[in-house]
Amino acid sequence: MGMTEPPQQHYLELSENPVQFEHASSVNNVFFDEANKQVFAVRSGGATGVVVKGPDDKSSVAFRMDDKGEVKCIKFSIGNKILAVQRTSKSVDFINFIPDYPHTEFSQECKTKNANVLGFCWTNWNEIVFITDQGIEFYQVFPDKRSLKLLKNQSINVNWYQYCPETAVILLSTTVQGNILQPFAFRNGTMSKMSKFEIELPVIPKPAKLSLSERDIAMATIYGQLYVMYLKHHSRTANSPSAEVVLYHLPREGACKKSHVLKLNTTGKFALNIVDNLVVVHHQSSQTSLIFDINLKEPDCAVNTHQPVLPARSIHPYRMPLAGPAVVPSQPPVPCQLYSSSWSVFQPDIIISASEGYLWYLQVKLHPTVNLLQDKGKLMDFLLRRRDCKMVILSVCSQSTLPVVATVFDKLNQVYKEYLEAEQSYTVAMESGPSRGSAAQKRPVRTQAVIDQSDMYTHVLSSFTERKEVSHKFVIAVLMEYIRSLNQHQITVQHYLYELVIKTLVQHNLFYMLHQFLQYHVLSDSKPLACLLLSLESTYPPAHQLSLDMLKRLSTANDEIVEVLLSKQQVLGALRFIRSVGGHDNVSARKFLDAARQTGDQMLFYTVFRSFQQRNQRLRGSPAFNPVQLKSHVESVSLE
């Protein structure tokens, strides 16, 4: 089972809590409904019970129905309102599960004479499509009247069909060879015919016979677009040494086009899943899987030809907990046979083992990809498109060389900038109100790929500056690289990043560098930054003047600068500043004395008090204060 590899190499795993159901046997038939993601365990035709289990165990339903012959297909409509059961090739039976509605079965035969029902799909809670070998019939179900009304039908020879519930599109295989595919879309009681298209077969058989198997076609939504995936096996006669997956893009309007080719570089039995917008190809004989990302453009390949993103790896070994009353607590869980021939794979991300009674969701683990993908630029492109990427991306930022860090920061800030712009245009649109003819703008969704300055500060940069084993020059280079990248993307740098730079410079006594950064405006002016510089005066005296220069450049009002200084308990600094701008005679003594009192430093308080006494002497010829205003302060000085 590939246990020799280090466990972190497995980038695919089965979900921890699978849906468990009674395994298939001679008395128990198992069915899966792709639309509701429900497993049906039907015992002896339903007479001894049907148990339905959905993705959450809460939606488990159990009931009995009369055994009227072997069940071929069974599915609930959306919301478990109406059950449809196919037992013959001519009709489908229905049972209401809506409270207070008649519970007796009713039935609908297909309209086309001599046609056989291949199956059916619910497209709404009360709309159903019958697929026959001679076409499709679209019905509305009236549960209260226990009847159906034909909305639309279309005659066409059908070999087999597939349904994509996310988009409500049914795909029919037509013609003798089966490789002309005709899609139909369903929405709110309407059925529309989409453009048909041809799957290019590796070999054209003579005489013509069915050559495209249902097993080799799958439909799925990838990056919000509907694709038909065709597993093209290698052929000995044609010059194609290995299998490939060909993706046909199926738009709502317009022609279906062949758009991507995924190179499998091997032959054999394959199965397809989609997880987190990645195409996963399972290979049975090697017991490994490959993943492809159609949005990663390959620089050295022909248009839209893709190689696997990562080397082939097995799904992470899975152990099945033993169930049932006979279980002894000390019994170890049994290893599950991965890539078993009894596995059934469903879209987008479901794997079912009917023989063992398990339904799993396939999941991608991102941490192992960091070591498997050496090209870190490509790694970032890959990670930024994944759902739960934030912590993995932040871990990559913490362990890279400077050129790599620069690339990573630029890729992150590109996504960050796009989000900020979308957010801004949304705000503008909201303020200006709805305009005629334009669709209502949706608020941009913030995905995990949007990594802002506070994320970077909290998870990477602040802890990075504290790492003892990293040279401080490298730390400063990384901080400045991030600031450069933000500036390049025209993103306003938050003052706490500048503060981190200054604190790091001061910690390592790099005052000359600090002076240069300020002199050449590498660190942008801001009030918080000026305050930070003021507080550095004791360790680096020129910081005082640098700070005041910055505040003046910001053309901040003098009294505001005083407020800033006092709030930072820089009382003497505030006094010196107000003197330097010639405002000492007009300021409120109480404000300064209150601030000095709050510091708890009696010497400071006394110095400030004496300073204002001298002012009083100069202005009024007496050191005395206005007694009402400053009574408490005067008393406290006389008591001391």
From TrEMBL:
Positions of the Mic1 domain: 393-626
InterPro entries the record matches: RMC1, RMC1_C, RMC1_N
Single GO BP term: regulation of autophagy
Domain Regulator of MON1-CCZ1 complex N-terminal residues, every copy: 30-148
Domain of life: Eukaryota
Pfam family, one: RMC1_N
Cellular component terms (Gene Ontology): late endosome membrane; lysosomal membrane; Mon1-Ccz1 complex
Full protein name: Mic1 domain-containing protein
